[in-house]
Amino acid sequence: MDVSQAQRERLAFLELHAFFTGELRRSDVEARFGIKPAAASRDLTLYREMAPSNLEYDSTKRCYRPSGTFTPIFPFNSDRVLAWLLQGFGDGLDLKLKPAAPCEGPGQFTRPDLKALGAITRSMCAHRAVRINYLSLSSGSRRREIVPVALADNGLRWHVRAFDRDRARFGDFVLTRISKVQEIEGEADERELLSSDEQWARIVEMEVVPHPGIRHPKAIEADYSMQDGVLRIKARAALAGYVLRRWNVDASSDHRLDPATHHLWLRNTPTLYGVESAALAPGGPELSADKAVV
Fold this sequence. Notes:
Blueprint: H1 5-21, H2 26-33, H3 37-50, E1 55-58, E2 63-66, H4 78-87, H5 114-126, E3 128-136, E4 140-153, E5 158-164, E6 169-174, E7 178-187, H6 198-201, E8 203-210, H7 217-223, E9 231-236, H8 237-246, E10 249-250, E11 264-266
Parallel strand pairs: 10-11
Antiparallel strand pairs: 1-2, 3-4, 3-7, 4-5, 5-6, 8-9, 8-11
Helix pairs in contact: 1-3, 2-3
C-alpha cells in the first residue's frame, strides 16, 4: 500500500506502542506526532486494513490491544526498539537514512528476542506477573515466575529488573536468557512492584577519581571532564555495581587493583554499604553476586 513517509512513521509508532505496551489509544498517536484526532483515526483505520488480525478493541478500557496472533508488519531492529524504550524517541523504526557523518561503535553481541521482550514490557506496563523459561548460570534452565518492573542497560547487555516470586525478592534477569514468556492475569501485589524495590529507589552518590597508581592523573581527569579531580556520579543502588564494572573502576578500599587496567578509583567506598550490586564491581565488597544478577 502506497503511504507517505510521515504516515509510515506514524503507523510504525502505532504498531510499536501497541505491541510493547499492550495497549493503544488514538490519543497516543495524537500526542506523539501533534496531529488532529481525525488524522489519528485515519491512521488507525489504515493500520487495521493493513493488518486486520493484529489489534483487538477492549471496550472496557477503550483501547486497542495486540491480539494473540499479532504479527508485526514493520521490520523493527532490536537495538532501535531498546533505544526507544530507554530514551523515548526514535520509535524503533529503521528508516535507512544516510548518517550525517561516518560513525561506528563496538556494536552489540547480544540480540534479545522481540517476542519475549514484548511480553515482558506489556506485563510491566500492566503490573502483571509472567512465567518464563530462564537459563541461569547457577541452576540452568528453570521455569520461573517473576513480576517485571523495569529494564536496565549495563552497557553490554540488557536486564529485566523483576520481583522473583521463588526467592521473594527483587533481582536482575538477563534479557537474552528469557524464553517462553506466559503472561499471568491479574495485577501483582504492591510488594512486588517497583515502588517496593528499595535497591531501585536508593540513589548512591559515588566519587570517582584517577587511580592513585596513575603517574599522570591529569590525563584521566581530562578523559572524564573531572571537576577538581573528581567525577561525581549518582546511580541507583540496583545499578551502581554495573556502572563501576562498565568503567572498570577499582572499588577496593585500598585501591589494590592494577592501575594499568583500572584507571579510576572509587574514593568514597563506604557509599557501597548495603548495595547488592556492589558485588559486581571490580574489587567490590565480598557479597553474593546472586543477589545482583540471577
